[in-house]
Amino acid sequence: MMKKIQSDWKKIGHVPRKDSDKIWKQFKTACNFYFDRLHAKRNEANKEFIEAFKKKQELLDTLKNIEFSDDKNKDLEKIKAHVNTWKNLGRVPNDKRFIEGKFNKTVDALFSKLKIDKNEAEMIKFETKLETLNSNDDNNRSLDNERSFIRKKIDEVKSQINQLENNLQFFTNVDDDNPLVKEVNDNIDKHKKELKLWKTKLSKIKELY
Q: What is the reported pLDDT for 57?
């Protein structure tokens, strides 16, 4: 915005010489005031991001050393509580976003250890991802990109299902227990489950608009 104002200032043209210095000093003072406030705001935001990164590092260490009990449900709730804490810690600096990948990898390992349903685990992580995207100060561009990506995946999976179902037409006189037919049917079921997961994700992201 200020860049445009400065550009417009140059386009306005000259003013009487007797007023030139006075007006220029006033304009320069206003510009300096604006940029000083802008830099102060950014510095404050950077402090918050760095603090969030430090807290996420600590939480990641806690997750890596978590100990499970004999109660699977209780342990799952413990992980979910940590995931919710992670979501509420906020954004980290752009050059520290790698910690999100480390977090997902650690959570994956914990879910695997607990033998949690893959789709349930995926949705827990996805909701965390949405919180991160929704906190980005980019006028929903990150969410828009994610929504477009999910819609594209839905179309791709639908196309794959249609192709597999068309392939079954070549086995009209073959028993269902035929290995090839069974493989195609298994693939169709697999893709339908995947489609359901993508649609669930799309529903979740729509709730944020």
A: 93
Distance of CA 153 to the CA centre of its chain: 16
Q: Contact at 8 Å (CB) between 200 and 126? A: no
Across 81-158, where does the E strand assignment appear? none
Distance CA 77, CA 85 (A): 12
Mean pLDDT by 10 residues, the chain (209 residues): 59 64 72 67 72 92 87 88 87 86 90 87 86 74 92 96 88 78 90 94 90
Q: Which helix (H) or strand (E) covers residue 47, if one does?
A: helix 17-64
Angle (CA) 52 114 194, round 5°: 85
d(CA 113, CA 38): 47
Q: What is the pTM of this model?
A: 0.60
Angle at 10 between CA 6 and CA 11, to 5 degrees: 115
Enumerate the domain spans of the chain: 20-137, 139-209
- List phi, psi (to 5°) of 45: -65, -40
Residue 110: CB atoms within 10 Å: 20
